[in-house]
Every structure is written in C-alpha cells, then in structure tokens.
Amino acid sequence: MKVSCLCFLFLELAFYNLVVGTETQEGSNTRVIGGVALTGDKLTQTPFPQWLTDFTGMNQWPGLDPPYIPLSFIDMAKIPDHRAYRQGHCLRVSRAACSFDCHVCLRPDDVGTCGKLSQTFDDGPSRASLKLIDSLENRSTFFVLGINTVNHPEVYRELIKHDHLIGSHSWSHKFLPSLSNEEIIAQIEWSIWAMNATGGHYPKWFRPPYGGIDDRVRAITRQFGLQAVLWDHDSFDWSLISNRPIKSEEEIYSDVRDWKKAGTGLLLEHDGVERTVDVGINVNRIIGKDQLTVAECVGGIDYIRTFPID
Ligand SMILES: [Zn+2]
C-alpha cells in the first residue's frame, strides 16, 4: 500500500502571512522554516486563550514548528527507543516497531477499517470544506490540522453545527516518525489546544499525517488518550493535484464502486482544497449516506471531553 501524500500542500501557506523566508524542498512543496508565531488574520483567528498563555507563557498561536511544552502526565520512560526515520526510508525500520507507513502494521487499538464503507476527510478545515459540509447528508469524520483549525474557526464551527466527528491530524502535518519525542509531543499538544480553544472539546481520534505511525509515536499519542485511525482504502484524491497523478478521477470512482460492492472499509480523502472536495462530493453520491463515523465503526465515544468556551 502506498501511503505517501502531498497533504502539506493543503496548508494554504499563502494565507498564513508568516514573516519568515521560505525554501523549496523535494520538488515544489513550499515550507516555512523556523518556530515563528502565526501572524495570520488575528481578527478571524481563534483567539489565543488566557489559560494557554498562563500555561505556555505565549500569547499567539505558533507557526509550523510549535514549541515543546512539557506536560506532567507524559512519562518519557514509557516511550520505546525505536529509531527515527524519514518518510519512505523503510529499509532500516524494524518490524518490531509496527510501522503503518512502512509495513501496514496495526496494533489492536488502531482503527484500520469499518463495517460499512465510510469516507474520512483529512487536512482541513479549509475554505473548500464548506462546499463539502453543504453537500453531505450523513455524519462523516474530519481529521483537522491545528494550524488550519485556528485559522478557519468559522469552518470548524460549521463542522460542529452539522454534527460531524472531528479528530486530530497533528498541528502542522509533519511526518511524525522523523521527529524527536519532544517534537511529536508538540505536534499533538498544540493540535489538541487548537481544538479545545476553537471547539470546546478534547479529541479521541487521531490520524497520523502520511499514515506515519510506529510504536514510538503510538506510545505518545496513547498518553494523550488518543486512538490512532488509519485506512484500508486510499482514494488517491491527493495525487490529482500533483504533477504525476496516480489515478485519474474516473479510476477513483471505479475503485469506489468496487469497494462499495464489498461494502466495508475506511476511505482516505481530503478537504484541504476544492479539487479533492469536488471528488469527495462525487464519491459521496456513489456510496450514499449509509455511512458511519469512525467512532460508530468501533462503538467508541466521539470526544474524551466537551466543555463550554467563551
Ligand atoms: Zn494529511
């Protein structure tokens, strides 16, 4: 199974107005370097809450490299010593590390399929998500980036209003197995704080960017109470906006029709840009509204906690 993804194209960097230089890596993927603060449109961003200032000493949302804030409930001794690896560099990755992206390895607490064929959407919330939310008649599952959540709180609130299930997709879409333990914790904690501040809830479900998860990453996400959600059907919608699409749009729909005949599975899709949202709407017409959220797939809860926000 190929589980790479160009999702960080979806970060809509142009809108972030980050006051740092950019560089191009590995083709045309633009990324911003440095742990600078997010200086997007403060008028429309989720306000940085006082409780988070009290806890972190910061007063604005971070950029793509969020700072590590130590947490008393995280026991570093519980994190196994599996070596870090870059995406696609699997030759030296031990089977014992149970990597999903390298070996399609799942642990018993991972969710990898569903009793009914069900769509899931990663990389939002974005302006394009609104069209999808308008179109869906069933509840669906959205795995959001923290950085997009605080930049599009109005879209996030639409997801809540339409009763969709929202899980975390990290703060800024890094390939987690390549990071240090502290950097992984930072990606998770800031994503949760973004959801706390924007939606008044603490997530239960976590989808690792690029499917990048091994037992070192799991040992961290489990300590946050999160359960990992992977997939067994990749729509390859993300490749439509790359230079070399893996599938044509028609091939995507043909796959979905085949999967619908089988009737089960979790389908990986994206709502970061309009192109993949349009595909998601068509896929929804093919599958129909008889779908489950990830929580319903396994009979689990939607959120660990919900609470009122100002
Ligand atoms: Zn993604």
Query: Total domains, how many?
Result: 1
Please tell me the overall pLDDT.
89
**What percent of residues are in strands?**
5-15%
The CATH class, by name, is Alpha Beta
Number of helices: 10
Tag the structure with descriptive keywords:
310 residues, alpha/beta, TIM Barrel, five-stranded parallel β-sheet, two-stranded antiparallel ribbon, 13% strand, disordered N terminus
SSE layout and pairings?
Blueprint: E1 22-25, E2 29-32, H1 50-56, H2 100-103, E3 118-122, H3 129-135, E4 141-144, H4 146-151, H5 153-161, E5 165-168, H6 181-199, E6 201-203, E7 205-206, H7 215-223, E8 227-228, E9 233-234, H8 249-262, E10 266-270, H9 274-287, H10 294-298, E11 303-306
Parallel strand pairs: 3-4, 3-10, 4-5, 7-8, 9-10
Antiparallel strand pairs: 1-2, 6-11
Helix pairs in contact: 3-9, 6-7, 8-9
The structure holds zinc ion.
What does it look like?
The protein has 310 residues and is of the alpha/beta class. Helix content is 30%, strand content 13%. It is built from 10 helices and 11 strands. The protein has a 5-stranded parallel β-sheet with strand order 5-4-3-10-9. Strands 1-2 form a two-stranded antiparallel sheet. Helix 8 links the parallel strand 9 and strand 10. Helix 3 (129-135) runs parallel beside helix 9 (274-287), helix 6 packs parallel to helix 7 and helix 8 (249-262) runs parallel beside helix 9. The radius of gyration is 18 Å and the shape is globular. Residues 5, 7, 122-123, 169, 173, 209 line the site of zinc ion (ZN).
